[in-house]
Amino acid sequence: MGDSLQATDFDTVTLVAEALRHESPYRITDILKEAARLMNAVACFLWQVAPGSRLDANPPVGHLFLVAHWTESGQKFPQYDLPLKSAAGQAILDGYRPKNIPNAQKDPCVYTGKGTFITEEGIGSFCSIPLRDFESLGGALNFYRRSVPAFSEADMERAVKLASLVVALYTSLRDKQTTILTSTIKHLQDQAERDIDKSILTQNIAEAVAGAFHCQETSIFLEDRLKCPGEYAVLGTTDDAFISASKYKKDKPGITGWVLAKRESVRIFDLAMFDEDPTVKSKGIMLGDHVREAVSRRRQEYVDRGETPPPQTLMAVPIVLGDDVLGMIRCFNSLSEPYHFSDRELQLLEAVAAQIARYWQNSQQRREMDSEIQCWHQLIEGIKTLNEYVHTELSRSAPDHKTILRECLRVAAEVVPKAEVTDVRLLGPGDQQLRFAETYGHLWSTDDSKVVDDIRKKTFSLDDPATSVSAWVVQNCSTRVVPDVSTESIYDTLFPNARSLIIAPVIARNKVVGVLDICSVEDGEFPRYADMIASLLGQQIGLYHKFTSTVCDLRDTERKTLANAKVERQTFEDLQHQLKGPIQQVEIRLRELLQESAGSANELEIKRCRGLAGKSRRVAERMGVFAELARGHTITADLSKRLHCDTLVMLLIEACSDTELQRLNEPTIHLDVERETFRILDRVEVFADRDWLEQCVYNLLDNAVKYSNYFTTVRVFGGLTKDGSFHITVANRGIHLMPEEVDHVIERGFRGNEAKRYTGEGSGIGLWMVDHIMRAQKGKLEVRPTIEGVTEVRLLFPRRLRPTKEVV
Predict the structure, then answer these.
(1) Digit-coded pLDDT (tens) for 59-69
(2) Which pLDDT does position 186 carry in this prediction?
(3) Has residue 175 got a pLDDT over 50?
(4) How many helices (H) and strands (E) does the chain have?
(5) Distance CA 263, CA 259 (A)
(6) 491-496 own/partner pairs: CB under 8 Å, 24+ apart
(7) Are 704 and 663 in contact (CB under 8 A)?
(8) Spatial CA neighbour of 590 closest among 611, 568, 570, 615
(9) How confident is the model over 116-123, as a mean pLDDT?
(10) CA end-to-end span of the chain
(11) Which of 95, 411, 585, 779 could crosslink 382 through cysteines, CB 3.0-4.6 Å?
């Protein structure tokens, strides 16, 4: 017994040392060689029960196949279909008890026909050690000798322990393989984030997987939602002999289409026996002609060499994340023993697919966010361009309504992704008919002008919203996306190649006056944000339409009487005030994007866009305030809401950030909000109008930065004054404000002498408006002369016990 234990310890050390020399389970042959040497055997075969076998059936159904083998002679005797009546099969069926075959040439469980391993190698005896825990259904490890005497009891005991150790080491190698492969893919993904071309990442992953599994082909199929939605392109492959097309769809017949459609993994033991595989039949999987031909060619190559063809195994795994099918990865044809993919390999491939899914989804989301940010930026620039264009056109004595609409459609085609055809249909006076007012896009520019003219003369009834999407949009004042244009007879008839459509209401003064049509001829849907952009453009077109109509009417009236001049100015001011609406919605969307992209490279650009949108909105609001004050009218402050510390601090920080970002190209002037000074708001009640407060704060910060010395800090702090008023103070170091100038800075048009020398820009109405706004809130603007180089401007608010509304 002592000798046996020592031998077993030596066996363990020997096999472990051999295993440590390798990193791949595909070097299992070297471990089998060492195990055979320790057993004085000339060969060692590792068998596994084939998938689909039913050992508990009566009679048992199935077979064994060869995982790996080693022979002293170096000859290969692969047997890929060992029956259950064999010695190895009987050892498994007989309660997993080892089988000792003393005379292999005469045993009824041993097939000794011509050309078999037993006959060719002159095997005299062998033993079969069943493996209960090998893979899912078990297996066996056989040791072969040329001598006839049976294996001794000590030999059998040693064989059992060696068999267990071989399986443990094989499992350990596969665990190591899992760790190495997942780490390699993670490294490749990290490297792609840093420096390498992302387009070759999937090719690198395919090569890494093919190397780990020793397979002939590994291919990765992924969907690029931005370029080819609904199509799965081959983005990486190690052998294109089995690729029949560069792109696949879920409904395409074959294994790839089935995996994409069913979102299920599939493993096929031998594609050459595809039609006889019960698993394949039960799942309804089809094999494409291209793959059948490739399988047949490879099988014939073995036959021509006089070799037994190994199984041509395949496994395919969907790349999914949540409800999204992002693609598929598949492996085909193991190039060395074992010639099959086990449950373990399938699980490892699923883990690889999960890694790819997370990376690809993040990559797609980043690209989509970049695209959306670019679209919102284009929209802001487009609206600015449109405002300038409309302003120029309206300055003419006879503005052209159609050119304004055409310019709007041009911007829509540039801003909305996939937009190929755009048009505006407006309601006629006093009826329920839509008519084409203007069109844009290459489909409207055909050679047959008569056909186009006839189309433009068509009218569209709004009587039945149930059958007409246009009628539904007008009735519900809401944008509608039509993924399939065939359901909307207008465009299906006009443009047979059209695929998807967005119809947005054109709104003027809360009334639908028409619709904006944006049509795509590409496959796939519009991006998720396209309908929001279309809605804003519809509102903008409505404003321009009403603006143009009103201006034209006023111009006609002006020629008749000067009395209507005042009405014209009022209309201009009112409509200019309405222009801030779409900008407000753009600002809201940019705030959402800023939260989604926190910490990314896009965060600074989004903040700048948000700041520009906010400034545009505030300028529009100030136009209204200035118009009211210039006419001697009063402005109203809403003092129904209490001013909270966190809300105020957030407003101040955002205002400082926006002010800094608008002056990135100038020497550094830092703005600092002293947050703790505003904690007094937790103990006292102060009520203020948030919109008017925002106007005041941005005005003071803009002045402070404009008149500050370079490389100084503008301080923003708060607290209570001696008389108990709450104050927000902006202090800066810059030009001096003389005591004699303090009482004049709130006068309209006044600018100090040093301020005029410091910068020539400025109209002198900023503090004048701030003073009026503060008095509307029962507060006060306090400007202090410069002391020791520091100038302070304060917004003073009275403490209140309950909310009120005040008018100045």
Answers:
(1) 888 888 888 88
(2) 79
(3) yes
(4) 22, 25
(5) 5
(6) 491/517, 491/519, 494/455, 495/421, 495/443, 495/519, 495/521
(7) no
(8) 611
(9) 82
(10) 107
(11) 411
Name every residue whose Cβ is closer than 8 Å to that of residue 121 and which is 6 or more positions away in sequence.
42, 43, 71, 73, 75, 77, 144, 146
Token reading at 43:
């060969």
Q: Residues with Cβ < 8 Å from 187, sequence gap 6 or more?
A: none
Instruction: Identify the CA nearest to 374 among candidates 534, 590, 531.
Output: 590
Count Cα atoms within 13 angstroms, Cβ side, for 713.
6
At position 610, the amino acid (one-letter code) is R
Separation between Cα atoms, residue 92 and residue 85, nearest integer Å: 10
CA distance to 47, 505, 539, per residue, from 479 (Å): 65, 6, 11
**Which residue is listed with tokens 């989509």?**
368
Structure tokens at 784: 């202090």
Whole-number Å distance between alpha carbons of 633 and 646: 34
Phi and psi (nearest 5°) for 787?
-125, 120
Beta-ladder partners of 503: 480, 517
The set of residues, in sequence order, having a beta carbon less than 8 Å from that of 333 and lying 6+ positions away, is 215, 216, 217, 298, 312, 313, 314
Report CA 432 to chain centroid distance, whole Å. Answer: 43
Beta carbons of 586 and 610 less than 8 angstroms apart: no
Alpha helices in 39-152 (DSSP H): 87-93, 117-120
| Secondary structure string (H, E, C) spanning 533-591 | HHHHHHHHHHHHHHHHHHHHHHHHHHHHCHHHHHHHHHHHHHHHHHCHHHHHHHHHHHH
Q: Is 232 helix (H, G, I), strand (E, B) or coil?
A: strand
Which 3 state secondary structure label does DSSP give 146?
coil
Any bridge partners for residue 142, and if so which? 45, 128
| Residue 428 DSSP one-character state | P
DSSP-assigned letter for residue 242: G
Q: What are phi and psi of 365, to 5 degrees?
A: -65, -40
pTM, to two decimals? 0.58
A 10 A CB-CB count for 121 gives: 18
pLDDT (0 to 100) of residue 341: 80
